[in-house]
Design brief:
By secondary structure, the chain is mainly alpha-helical. About 45% of the residues lie in helices and about 10% in strands.
Length: about 210
Amino acid sequence: MARVPRILLVAMLGALAGCRDADPVILRLEGESVRRSDFRRQLAAVEARDVGPITAETRAGLLDAFLEQRALVIEARHRGLLPAQASAEQEIEAVTRLLNEGVPAPEVPAAEVTAWAEAHAAELVVPERIGLRQVLVATLNEARDVRRRLKKEPRSFDSIARASSKGPEASVGGYMGSFERGQLPPELEAAAFALPEGATSEPVQSPLG
């Protein structure tokens, strides 16, 4: 199995300011060097995105991430995955290939996957859930009149609910919310879960109307 390279740090952020070298090496790997000026360019690019003040802690974290990324780029180039002069996009692609080679996806036998699924079957079940709208009226004749109007213009449910429904959800076009089985009165649940998506039921009588 290929191994992701270890990073050799030859200087840390806290020591950079006091170093006599105007542009000290902060990473050396496979005969290549990364200097403080390289990190400063990266830092300037971050600051240009107007992310706010960069604290010493944030700067140290950015340095760690920068050194790790440069080490991976150098290793990718050392393995022939990247030309000497490459764009940032090419570097990202090469590092991705390097990491995929170094950390291959685990192979799980199909029988093990099946056994796990059977043991966790209850966790994998997603309950059926529906969104429901209603027009609540006082009499069956009113309900039949609403049904006739909807047959002529199925898309008018929202406006009819706002104008005719006596339910508290009338102001939002009759939208009651989304429900699983067992969350609605029995007479509503039976009708609602029997409907195909987007359909309107026949009038349903309930204690409310």
